[in-house]
Amino acid sequence: MNPNKPAQPLRRRMLKLGLTAAALSASPLPALAGKQHSTAHIVIIGVGAAGLAMANRLRRNVTGNRITLVGQRAEHHYQPGYTMIASGLWPEKKVLSTTSQWLPEGVDWQAADVTAIDAAQQQLSLSNNTRLHYDLLVVATGCQLNYSQIEGFSPELIGQHGIGSVYAGPQAAAATSRQIEQLISQGQGRAIFTLCDTPLKCAGAPLKMTFTTLSRLEKSGKRQQFQVDFFSPFKQRVFSVPVYNDFVLQRWQEQQVGFFDQRKLTAIDAGANTAYFTGADGLSQSEAYDFIHVVPPMSAPDVVRQSDLVWQSGAFAGNWLEVDQYSLQHRRYPNVFGVGDVIGTPFGKTAASVKLQAPVAEQNILAYLAGQPLPARYNGYTSCPLITSIGRAILSEFGYEGKLMPSFSFISPTEESWTVWMMKEQMLQPAYNAMLHGRV
Amino acid sequence: MTFSGVMMIMWYALQPWLWLLALLLVALLLSYGFGRRNPGKPRKTLWLLAVIAGLIAMLVAPALSHSQLSYVATWPDKAALAAIGLGVACYVALLLAPWLRR
Ligand SMILES: Cc1cc2nc3c(=O)[nH]c(=O)nc-3n(C[C@H](O)[C@H](O)[C@H](O)COP(=O)(O)OP(=O)(O)OC[C@H]3O[C@@H](n4cnc5c(N)ncnc54)[C@H](O)[C@@H]3O)c2cc1C
């Protein structure tokens, strides 16, 4: 498809795909509530939260066609549990399962990664040297952690020299917890927490790591022996929703956490336990630490960045998948949809967002296959229980423009609560599992 | 969130604990099998034990969830804790009722 040409009228494109949608009748939504018959080959890239949720949903509601799920990873990780591991509360095994256990019947799983996307030819190149043609593509490749953009840093350093990073996987989260334990056993020292200057998945995680470490230091009875500092690349900001930002900064002030803004982590000398931050003036400044929590810059995976599917202009240019922030349909390739962390939208990089995005993308894909206007809209819903101590949390839920979107009328979106902590500890994983099966 | 969504999540949350629920149910059934042969009014000790069990459950529930009692602060927190205490007290009362009769 030539992206410069206007998209073909939907109905004509459909006939080309040989679609015989049962719901080609005039009524848009009720007809789509049922199953669709289609011969379109749907390919989903990514076997994470979004890819599996989409595979389960589409398999249930589209009949007669082939659905292929592409992704090499045989192990599935419940990533929201990483924070619990890194805080010394959960064992690693609690977040591990296999990809195959979430796969619906009737979906082909290609256990290979995509190495190139040719959107014009509707073709993918795979790491097993095969090519795959698609009629409709769902991009769900998640985030890429760009640790290499921090000079002197590589993920292998996590768990050594006082370095931690909750993002790099379950082992890294466990290694992070051990580094924090080591800091505590030293009896004194300086802990530095950082934030990247790109959009990031679960933007609350760097803050949660700070709060749970503070809890552990307080529990040791030696909090006063430790200096805890947070470095943010932004001006007076650690979180994009003002009410939570203000809460966190205020609480840190009470907890004597040093706050250094407009400082971006640019290099680490692991051997010397020294981090280098670049300030707003462009000058580099060194900081010694006993423990540092590193948050890597993030982007869509290179395979998306190097394809024509990436945003061409604006804040997400060159880094994130170009989709309409409401319909989740690609803005130039109408047969491409995006779900999960990979999409370039103002909010929406949490598993809770996927829970809302998946049904929107599903409904819009069904409508697209039926040649009807896309009915569903994603409102930017993002949620993460913001842990403020080990044992309590705030249920932060918000959407586009930072609008608060509480799910439960009886839970205040700004109050710390044990119930919310229990949700994070006990209920989030079942909710996630139900989402993978496309059940919520 | 829809009611059916909440129910679905509850179902997923309960799945790993079905064995425990089954065990509690079996204990109750066994207790009632015994109780049917011992009709009579419950003793005061039964209510006392039920209240004590409920209170203990309320005291340890936060710790069991890696939290602490002082973090039970909002009214939903207090309601959840009360529900736990009430649930445990009722279960203990039902379980012991056939054994503690006059
Ligand atoms: C520390 C941490 C804490 C978090 N806490 C919370 C929380 O409290 N609440 C919450 O809602 N969310 C939380 N999240 C975020 C949540 O886990 C993610 O938003 C969610 O997993 C996104 O799903 P996804 O499918 O987009 O990405 P992922 O689950 O990361 O899956 C992406 C998949 O794509 C695959 N892939 C990548 N490149 C390719 C390729 N070239 N070809 C094929 N496959 C590819 C990957 O291997 C992976 O399987 C947290 C995340 C982290 C890391």
UniProtKB/TrEMBL annotation, chain A:
List each copy of the FAD/NAD(P)-binding domain by range: 41-156
Q: Which Pfam families match?
A: Pyr_redox_2
Q: Where is the signal peptide?
A: 1-33
Q: What biological-process terms (Gene Ontology) are attached? A: sulfide oxidation, using sulfide:quinone oxidoreductase
Its domain of life?
Bacteria
Q: What keywords are annotated for this sequence in UniProt?
A: Signal
Q: Which GO terms describe its molecular function?
A: FAD binding; sulfide:quinone oxidoreductase activity
Which protein is depicted? Twin-arginine translocation pathway signal protein
What is the native source organism of this protein? Arsukibacterium ikkense
UniProtKB/TrEMBL annotation, chain B:
Q: Does the keyword Transmembrane apply?
A: yes
Q: Which UniProt keywords apply?
A: Membrane, Transmembrane, Transmembrane helix
| Highest taxon of the lineage | Bacteria
Would the keyword Transmembrane be found if you checked this record's keyword annotation? yes
Transmembrane residue ranges = 17-34, 46-64, 79-100
- Record-given protein name: Transmembrane protein
Task: Name its species.
Answer: Arsukibacterium ikkense
Q: What is the lineage of its organism?
A: Bacteria, Pseudomonadati, Pseudomonadota, Gammaproteobacteria, Chromatiales
